[in-house]
Fold NitT/TauT family transport system ATP-binding protein.
Amino acid sequence: MSAPGIPEVLLTNVTKRFGPSAAPVLDAISLTVERGEFVTLLGPSGCGKSTLLKLVAGLSPITSGEITVNGMTPVNARPIVSFVFQDATLLPWRTVEKNVALALELEGRPRDETAQTTQSLLQLVDLSHVAQHYPRQLSGGMKMRVSIARALATRPRVLLMDEPFAALDEITRDRMNEELLRLRAEQDWTVLFVTHSVAEAIFLSSRVIILAPHPGRIAHELTIDLPWPRTAETRESEAFDALVNRASRLLREAHRA
Ligand SMILES: Nc1ncnc2c1ncn2[C@@H]1O[C@H](COP(=O)(O)OP(=O)(O)OP(=O)(O)O)[C@@H](O)[C@H]1O
């Protein structure tokens, strides 16, 4: 358990350059994400959204400033963080079940425990019926659910998701959004999410951060006060439309900044 008052993710004046004389990709980013928040980063292509997630994951070093995850450095926090990428990145030669079990096997967990956890995760994402299938036998939405189940296997506190549903059709994506929120209600992770879809950002998030490019910096922040649980009806509400319009306007402004 974290001590009270420690933010789940804290960025203080973070700058990132790829090389000593390169222009900064991210400049003076300060952001506090509290436990249980669902925070989405929206911004034009190239403004540094993926880079920011990678810094929080400890996959790339910061140039200056500070990042802590539950009070730890990103590298030390790796055991409590999971990353879901846009392409499901499943291993084609392993079955669905074996893909989900991978992280647990690598951690050297007992075989019984691994089998049990894998089974309950497949139930959670509604894929028990294809446990013995290979990735090539699955639809895009199913592959993404396997990828999410795999990310949840290590019971992360913090989930970093980089455009996980970008390759899906709109109906499947809407359904996956609802499923993601249902899983989150059961498992209570803190989420840092990246998308290009304004509607997806508004639907999922408790807060949306809009970034401006060159260098990437925080331009606006929107609290999404739509009621929970969010359902298909949420998307049909006037409040939802108003927030989508507002975020779209701020995003256009950020493009011009
Ligand atoms: N490993 C790297 N080395 C050098 N430059 C990089 C590297 N990774 C990213 N960049 C640069 O950093 C900038 C931000 O890239 P990033 O992928 O974080 O943006 P993004 O906002 O996620 O873009 P998109 O929405 O298109 O995915 C880009 O100009 C990119 O070329």
User: Anything to note?
Assistant: Helices lie at 49-57, 96-106, 111-124, 140-152, 170-187, 198-204, 232-235, 238-256. The pocket of adenosine-5'-triphosphate is lined by residues 18, 25, 43, 45-51 (CB under 6 Å). The mean pLDDT is 93.
